[in-house]
Sequence to fold (277 residues):
Amino acid sequence: MSDKTRLPVLFIPHGGGPWPFMHGTEGQLPDDDPWKELEIFLKGLDASLGRRPKAVLVISAHWEKVERLTVSTAAKPPMLFDYYGFPPHTYQLDYPAPGAPFIAEHVRDVLREAGIETAADSERGFDHGVFIPFMMIYPHADVPIIMMSLDPDLSAETHFRIGQALERLRDEDILIVGSGLSYHNMRMFRRRDADHEQAAARFDDWLTEAVAIENPVARAERLAAWKDNPDAQAAHVPDHDHLVPVFAAAGAAGPDAGERIFRGEYLGKPYSAYRFG
Fold:
C-alpha cells in the first residue's frame, strides 16, 4: 500500500509543437480540434492532485543530446522555442515560472548519493515539452519548475535507476513529472492508415499493462523489453526519446503501480497519461 501523504509520479503527453496556441494566443481550442481532449485533461490536472507541490521536477523528452544527465539550475529560466515552421505568434509565448536552484542542487545531491553523477546547466530555457503542458497545468506560472535531461544512453534500465534514486523527493513535496508521448512516430503522425493505427493502439495498451505491474522489479523488466514488442516500431520511429520519461517515472513510483488517467487520440493514434500513487 502506498503512502498517500506523498505526491504521485506522473507521465504526461505534451502534444505536438505549440498545439494549444495554433488558433491564437489564448490557449483555448475549438471543440473539433484533435488536441482538445488533451487541453481539457491538462487544465484539470492541478485540481486532481489535491494540493500544490513545493516544486516540480520535469524530465522532458526534448532535453537530450547531452554528455551526461543534466539538471537545470536557472533561477529564471528563459524560453526555448525548439519547434519549427509554426505561426509567428507561437514564438512570442512567455511562461515566467521560476526555477529553484537550491532544490535543483538537492536533486543533484540525491542522485550523487545513488552513484549517479550529473551536470548542472544554469542557462537552459523551458523547452516545449515543459512550457506547453505547464501553461495548461499552472497557467499563472506560480509553481517553481526544475528540468532534468534524459540520460544520453536513453535506456529503460538507466532511467528506471534514475527514477529509483528520485523516489524520495515525493516525500519532500516535489512532484516528479515525465513529459513525452506514448506514441511518437513522426512519419505517420498526420497520415491515416488502419493497420498502423491498430498497431499503435496495441502498443499503447501494452504500455498501460506494463506500467500497471505492481512488483517494481517485474515492471522494470517488462519495460526494459519494450523493443521486443512487435508493435514498438509502429509507435516510436525513428527514435524513442518520447518514451524514455515513462521509464524514469516508473522507477520513481517505487511500489506504486501505474494507472492510465487519460487516453487521447490524434488521427487514429492513441496516446496516454499515467499516474503512479
